[in-house]
């Protein structure tokens, strides 16, 4: 009897604990149901928003008047969509992932993309180049051989080269293809898109009936690219599962409004490279996460694991063959494999990656350098080289560098950046010196020197990230991969919004919340078209700048300036909290303890 009396307090506590646990479970279930309902509501609102944007996109027809295009209205709608997106991320972050939530996220992502599939590209024309390249490839002609301008001017007479004559006949016999050729941007240059992307363009062309209208061809091409985009969603889910993270975080990629604009609406080919790069990262993570050591502690080469890593290297090489940017991950992957597996294991995958990349890019490499007086008409690298040496758009860090290197003597106030601080004499001296030493035109020097400076900064960042990454921790590897791509983009002279999609699959592994904001801020890029259309020759807001210059020298500071401040503050706060929680322990001195 006394024993029962002694157990009474214990039993009472157990009963009370069970009641509290039951109440807590009921509360969690109620919260989960509420969060799911909120996610459904956000999915519904987003679908409506994308439906309205798709409707408005028909006012962006290729022949429409730029000043009549509802650019500001579309940007406002995307802003609301981005707010819904941030709300969905918050819900996914705090909600326990389950099959129902994941199905809602993936299902909604598919619906969003189907809605935007049947829209016209908003302020973008790159897809017409894809359509033309696909038609050229399926005709048995290399798209790197002739520029669209050469085909426009060619005739179908027997005196023409056989390949050029065939393209001219295609243009004359197919009105839709002739219109596509007319819409190709920078027609004086051959294509800049590498062979993997060209294979997808050709496949899309082959899957389109030859009698199809221009709109049908455009929608089929976009459907192919959306397929790669959705495949990336599945790889992101697999990567999250591999790292034991909530699969609901795939919403960061799946629902991102930037992807809806740049892939589902504008049909940018970057979706191909993004899929292949993300797949290769997933494969490398699986390799880095497994153990293959002998009992003696020496590393053992497992043939099965080695084959898997070789395949991952081939996939990454095909990613480089789709868009050149994945090459920046090579140092990180090399360091991780060497430190985790050793040089013997790494040599074969590294060699395979290099050889596959060279083989894929060989159609772009000229067979022999052109002589001084020889025409560049058949130079397959002309488009790529021109892009790398001249393109500049929506940049910030690169802009600060180059505007402090350009001489301003030949430019008026409306072309001179307000943030130029280096003396004019120093800039002119630098340009003259480099021009004389490297035999370059003075106008090319500031861009190339700026390229060298930003490339050096990026190389330092990439090597530092690769060195500091912990190969035993796949999450650390994914974060380093994200930061490598992100800083590569930030230091580029061309910060097109669709280039930021390169980093989006790895965004769930970024520690700073500021990185999430970048996907919304880059929509400001499209204000450049509105400013250029409304203020082509007049100053904006009493500034010395016309529309395009106002964007370059003012709006980009609004786009990136506060964001960099927020990024730096977030880094400092995390560093302070880390030092507070884990203070460094004093080092023990040699000798006897007291």
Short synopsis of the structure:
It contains 23 helices and no strands. It is mainly α.
Give an account of the 3D structure:
The chain is mostly helical. The protein has helices at residues 2-56, 71-94, 99-117, 126-138, 148-153, 162-173, 175-183, 195-206, 214-242, 251-254, 257-265, 270-288, 303-322, 330-341, 343-361, 382-390, 397-403, 424-438, 445-468, 474-490, 514-521, 527-534, 547-581. Helix 4 (126-138) packs across helix 9 (214-242). The chain contains 23 helices and no strands. Helix content is 65%, strand content 0%. Mean pLDDT is 88; it is low at 292-298, 371-375 and 584-594.
What is the β-strand count? 0
H/E series, N to C?
A: HHHHHHHHHHHHHHHHHHHHHHH
Mean pLDDT: 88
Count the DSSP helices: 23
User: How much beta, percentage-wise?
Assistant: under 5%
- Spans of 5+ residues with little confidence (pLDDT < 50)? 292-298, 371-375, 584-594
For the termini, the CA-CA separation is 56 Å
Outline the biggest β-sheet.
none
Shape: globular
Give the proportion of residues in helices.
55-70%
> What is the radius of gyration?
28 Å
Structural class: mainly alpha
Strand-helix topology:
Layout: H1 2-56, H2 71-94, H3 99-117, H4 126-138, H5 148-153, H6 162-173, H7 175-183, H8 195-206, H9 214-242, H10 251-254, H11 257-265, H12 270-288, H13 303-322, H14 330-341, H15 343-361, H16 382-390, H17 397-403, H18 424-438, H19 445-468, H20 474-490, H21 514-521, H22 527-534, H23 547-581
Helix pairs in contact: 1-2, 1-3, 3-9, 3-11, 4-7, 4-8, 4-9, 6-7, 8-9, 8-13, 9-11, 9-12, 12-13, 12-20, 13-15, 14-15, 14-19, 17-19, 19-20, 21-23, 22-23
